[in-house]
Write a structure and sequence with these properties.
The complex is a heterodimer. Chain A is of the alpha+beta class. Chain A contains ten helices and six strands; from the N terminus they run αβαβαββαβααβαααα. Chain B folds into three domains: 185 residues, Multidrug efflux transporter AcrB transmembrane domain (Multidrug efflux transporter AcrB transmembrane fold, Up-down Bundle), CATH 1.20.1640; 91 residues, Gyrase A, domain 2 (2-Layer Sandwich); 196 residues, 2-Layer Sandwich (Gyrase A, domain 2). The chains are: A alpha+beta, B alpha+beta.
Chain lengths: 325, 563
């Protein structure tokens, strides 16, 4: 009568195919990295400068007509994408017009928006003016934003590495961070491969993935630490397997509740944050995978000090007692 | 653990009650917002927005009574992406001020050197790059004495960091003295320029009377301006982007665009479209400036055209009166930001200290100009680095979509938890509902801003908040397997799950803090809801469920439990 995602007592061997899983991860990372190097990310204006205009009209979007109308204005590179969303009524047609940062202009030009407005008004009288949203970022700011974002991600990973090193041992920290980097790289890879718009909000999503992936890894590691004290004679591999199996039910429960909530947001939350939510969904999936197949596998590979005979030290809050023996 | 002291139970429920009470105004958002506006209006006499200004006293009283005064009335602020409005990031060209300062020093330097004409010879100001003053002396042999005199003009820097340094530095090469601001003085000047700019922007935005604008200094020389409810960033730029330096100059005569100005004169174009292509040669020093205005209002002139009236303060009125009475019959120019609005002929002495500017204004332009003149001129020009406009409909759509998504996510998680853990799942669900209430309570308490990613943060918290309970319940299941009694199993479940819960949440909290510190705008909104969500979820999962389970256990005393 209870809903059980995972059977009561499991004893999967998570390391029997460790090489295969690691191989898959490395392969995916390489694919992601290659895609990142070759076609790069589809940076939004936050990181590249330029202007995006959201248009809304009761007549369907005709991308070619929009382009033809805007081309003569000489605004440089223009991209027009239609936005689809299940929450839109039938007579709501939305498009995003993206204009590159204008040559030599540090400041944002108000005339650009006016030009676009005039051109589009001529071909679609039903269009709603003023535009539902206009966002414009100068090249100076966008350069700074990308720098801050990169610093934020690196700082987050470093802070977490430090915390885990304090609470566990350095092998755990390395395993956790490897899993984190794995998740972040795979997410970047997906964004590059699918050319989803990469803007400031995605950085927030990336950091959340860092947080979530860690959450998962830490729960498994916490159990590993406990079991290392409990089963002093067992192989590290067996202890890891027992720990993962014991926490498996929890791992799935949490992932499923989080995914339920995220999918609700993905489907119903509107198109404005869809990319953001997509990043998080992807992050939860790879984060769950990596805490078992990357973090634990690396822990197994690095080995770990087995003498946890003074557990009271950690219980009384002196986390430094066991560090670096 | 199975017996919690009464004190503990009461404090836990009290915390929950306070959290929910603080959150309660948000469920009646419009009512409370109207109540707050009406109360603010009654207290300060300044209407917080245009709608309030038009209301009758009865309506205001009804609004004020709409929400009981003893209840908390702080609301969660809605970010621009939810409410609609404009966001601007501007950079102030602080160097603009340096050349004005140099003009001031020129007068002092000239004064100082004039007394020693025998040693330094005649002095003449040379062309120099912005922010520098170059003075040529005809007797290079007197350079040492000249420098000594110029340095005597310097005064100590007035700022905390610049203590001990002077405001200008002078150096001599050949027969040229170069005078520059010192770095300490530049810093102090920049700081003053920024303060003034912020003040003027604030005054201008306040004149338009929108709700809760944000005007913040960012870094050394940037200003962030967020105004909810304004139609477009362009409108905001029109309001704050113009320097609005009004000056009144004697007219020397008409000029051509390529003429070189004579000594102490300038050539400015006319902005009147009927006069297009006309240029005026004006005396460089104005008779009076906009700094001496006391008031300015939009009006209509005798021909029914939009115009702007102005009134000088007593000092300005006196200067203006003297000048106009001495120069009846000659033209003088009204200049705004180095462009001539009009150049009428003085018909009679204007001694009342007030006047009217007629140009080819639209009604909107005259209203805007009056606002700008009342608020005063910006000390330096601004460039806009970033601008975002979000229409109110798009914001409302986002709120609606976010609400539906939140409710659906909530229901899915509640059902799923109940199916998985039965009665215990129900307990976790109660905690989850309390959790979301407390997030809103905290958001209102600290006056945080809810953004679209912030809503995503709440939805994510809903998903992740149950994690702590899942950890505890799974642990209780395990403990039950080793056939301990229910009470002992529950106790051990809470005890042993604690370290995993803390570690997991602290790491997530670290990322939320970093996100808050590094991020801006919407991203920051996300970090706030994520961080607060972690705090409240740990509290509700550890304490609230525990109290509920204890109360349930004490009443039922079950022999066996199923989790």
């Amino acid at each position: 009568m209870r809903l059980k995602l995972v059977p009561e007592n499991t004893s999967f061997d998570f390391f029997s195919r460790a090489k295969m899983w690691l191989g898959i991860s490395v392969f995916l990372i390489l694919v992601g990295f290659a895609s990142f190097m070759i076609q790069g990310l589809n940076y939004g204006i936050d990181f590249q400068g330029g202007t995006t205009i959201r248009t809304e009209s009761s007549t369907p979007v005709d991308v070619a007509a929009y382009r033809a109308a805007l081309e003569p204005a000489g605004l440089g590179d223009i991209s027009i994408t239609e936005v689809f969303d299940p929450t839109f009524p039938d007579d709501k047609h939305v498009a995003m017009v993206r204009i590159q940062a204008q040559e030599g202009a540090e400041a944002v030009e108000g005339s650009t928006v006016q030009t676009v407005e005039d051109a589009l008004r001529a071909i679609d009288p039903d269009m709603i003016f003023p535009f539902p949203s206009v966002e414009s970022v100068g090249p100076k700011v966008s350069g700074e934003l990308i720098q801050t974002a990169a610093i934020a991600v690196v700082l987050a990973i470093a802070a977490v590495l430090f915390y885990i090193w304090l609470r566990f041992e350095w092998q755990f920290a390395v395993g956790a961070v490897a899993a984190l980097v794995h998740d972040v790289v795979l997410t970047l890879g997906v964004f590059s491969e699918l050319q989803i718009k990469f803007d400031l909000a995605i950085i927030a999503a990336l950091l959340t993935i860092v947080g979530y992936s860690l959450n998962d890894t830490v729960v498994v590691f916490d159990r590993v630490r406990e079991n290392l004290r409990k089963y002093k004679k067992k192989d590290l591999k067996d202890v890891l397997n027992i720990s993962i199996n014991e926490t498996l039910s929890r791992t799935f429960m949490t992932s499923v509740t989080t995914l339920l909530a995220l999918f609700a947001l993905f489907i119903l939350g509107g198109d404005v944050i869809r990319g953001f939510v997509f990043a998080m969904i992807w992050g939860v999936i790879v984060g769950t995978y990596s805490s078992i197949f990357v973090a634990s596998a690396i822990l197994l590979w690095l080995g770990v000090k087995r003498d946890w005979s003074k557990p009271d030290l950690t219980k009384t809050g002196n986390q430094f007692g066991n560090v670096d023996a | 653990m199975m017996n919690m002291s009464l004190f503990q139970r009461i404090s836990i429920w009290l915390t929950v009650a306070v959290g929910i009470l603080l959150a309660s105004p948000n469920f009646f958002y419009t009512t409370v917002e109207n109540h707050n506006d009406a109360v603010a209006f009654a207290e300060t006499g300044v209407s917080p927005n245009a709608a309030v200004a038009e209301m009758t006293p009865e309506e205001l009283a009804a609004n004020a009574a709409g929400w009981p005064g003893f209840m908390p009335s702080s609301l969660v602020n809605l970010g621009l992406d939810l409410r609609g409005g404009a966001h601007l990031l501007a950079e102030v060209n602080v160097e603009d001020v340096y050349s004005d300062r140099m003009d001031g020093y020129w007068l002092e330097v000239r004064e100082a050197l004039r007394g020693e004409r025998d040693t330094v010879g005649t002095i003449r100001r040379q062309n120099a790059p912005d922010g520098q003053l170059r003075v040529k002396i005809s007797n290079p042999a007197g350079m040492e004495r000249a420098l000594q005199l110029v340095r005597g003009v310097a005064s100590p820097v007035v700022s905390l960091t610049g203590v001990g340094s002077n405001d200008i530095q002078a150096s001599g090469a050949g027969d040229i003295i170069t005078i520059e601001l010192t770095d300490a003085e530049k810093l102090a000047t920049n700081d003053r320029t920024m303060q003034q700019s912020l003040e003027i922007i604030r005054r201008r935005v306040d004149e338009v009377g929108t709700r809760e604008p944000t005007i913040q200094r960012q870094g050394e020389r940037r200003v962030l301006i967020q105004v909810p409810g304004i139609g477009s960033a362009q409108q905001l730029k029109d309001l704050i982007g113009t320097t609005a330096k009004l000056t009144f100059h004697p007219v020397v005569g008409p000029a051509g665009p390529n003429d070189t100005p004579g000594p102490r004169t300038v050539i400015y174009p006319s902005i009147d479209p009927q006069d297009a292509g006309t240029f005026y040669e004006l005396e460089q020093s104005p008779v009076v400036t906009g700094e001496e205005l006391a008031d300015s209002q939009p009006a209509f002139d005798q021909n029914g055209q939009p115009s702007v009236t102005f009134r000088f303060n007593p000092g300005g009125a006196r200067k203006f009166g003297i000048y106009t009475s001495e120069n009846v019959g000659s033209p003088f120019a009204i200049v705004l930001d180095e462009q001539v609005i009009s150049a009428p002929v003085i018909r009679e002495a204007i001694t009342g200290g007030s006047g009217q500017i007629s140009g080819s204004f639209s009604v909107e332009e005259s209203t805007n100009l009056a606002v700008l003149l009342r608020a005063g001129a910006l000390p330096a020009e601004m460039t806009f680095l970033e601008e975002r406009t979000i229409g109110p409909e798009l914001g409302q759509d986002s709120i609606d979509a976010g609400k539906i998504a939140c409710i659906v996510a909530f229901v899915l998680v509640l059902v799923f938890m109940f199916l998985s853990y039965g009665t215990f799942g129900l307990f976790a669900n109660i905690a989850l509902i309390i959790n979301v209430g407390m997030i809103f309570g905290l958001l209102s308490l600290i006056g945080a801003t809810l953004t679209l990613p912030g809503i995503a943060g709440i939805v994510l918290t809903i998903g992740m908040a149950v994690d702590a309970n899942v950890l505890i319940f799974e642990r209780i299941r395990e403990e039950l397997k080793t056939s301990k009694g229910p009470a002992r199993a529950i106790e051990l479940g809470y005890e042993k799950a604690l370290s995993a819960i803390l570690d997991a949440n602290i790491t997530t909290f670290i990322t939320a803090v970093i996100l808050f510190a590094m991020g801006s705008g919407p991203v920051r909104g996300f970090a706030i809801t994520l961080g607060l969500g972690i705090l409240t979820s740990v509290f509700t999962a550890i304490y609230v469920t525990r109290v509920i389970i204890i109360m349930w256990y004490d009443r039922k005393r079950p022999k066996t439990i199923e989790v």
